[in-house]
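In this section we walk through a basic example: taking a raw amino acid sequence and producing a predicted 3D structure, encoded as discrete structure tokens. The instruction is simple. Fold the sequence below.
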Amino acid sequence: MVEWIESRGLVPYETALAEMEARVAAIHEGRASEAVWLLEHPPLYTAGTSARPEDLVEPGRFPVHVAGRGGQYTYHGPGQRVVYVMLDLNKRGRDVRAFVSRLERWVIATLAEFNVTGEVREGRVGVWVRRTDRGLAADGSVPEDKIAAIGIKLRRWVSFHGISINVEPDLSHFEGIVPCGIREHGVTSLVDLGLPVTMDDLDTALRATFSAAMNAPA
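The resulting token sequence is shown next.
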């Protein structure tokens, strides 16, 4: 059984990290069930293990935390649903690529609940949407914006960190970093796409699509 935890209000990053560490240890030792934690953070930037100093454009804008997860710089803040997944890959298959693929499928299935087509791209982490409403780029391609980030860490094959989906964050806050090291594409949200989606709406969709996506064959 997977326990679903939802925190109201803004959870400080240090608090969340400490609670994740404790829960992951308890899952490994058999003292706690797997968990999915839904929360929001105050505005901050996190640096993954591949973060490059030059991608922190405005270092004094918000607090910067070294996350220990995979990936580069990302932003967390109000209006963004952060989903920390504490799942035991000893039971789900010790395959990191397959696990990340399932997380991507989960995000894509969740977005589909709102008739949004999310896609993944080779060489680009996260989930993307085509912006056909903006016309073609200078090279003739359809512009694409990032709507969800993915970054995980494993300890003794138990996962933590996870995904974040933009519902209605202040998109200008992303300007202080190069999100995930990608300069040629933008960032969007469900509300930016013109959809009146609330955090509760997204949470309902996340719960509805979780089992099928995360338990599907690799």
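Looking at the output, two observations stand out. Residues 96-112 form the longest helix (17 residues). The chain has four helices and eleven strands. In the next section we compare this with other chains.
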